[in-house]
Design goal:
Elements lengths: L2 H33 L2 H28 L11
């Protein structure tokens, strides 16, 4: 795997993490508004979104970079 491949895989993983961040923030904000008063609801929704987005990006990025292809396409 070349350096370009690793950069590509990390960029894709960060993009996925941002999508997870946005969706988690929207859903958690709606759910927490019903359960908590306003300042605590916004803080908890943002905290959960940051944690989920970071965890997803890290998990997918490490998984993609550590992936060993089954078929080697290099020519000797």
């Amino acid at each position: 795997m070349t350096r370009d491949d690793r950069v590509f895989y990390w960029a894709i993983s960060i993009g996925e993490g941002l999508i997870v961040f946005m969706v988690t923030w929207l859903l958690a904000a709606r759910a927490s508004e019903w359960l908590m008063p306003q300042p605590a609801a916004a803080i908890s929704a943002m905290s959960l979104a940051v944690i989920m987005g970071t965890a997803w990006s890290s998990y997918r990025g490490l998984r993609r970079v550590r992936h060993v292809p089954l078929v080697h396409t290099t020519v000797d």
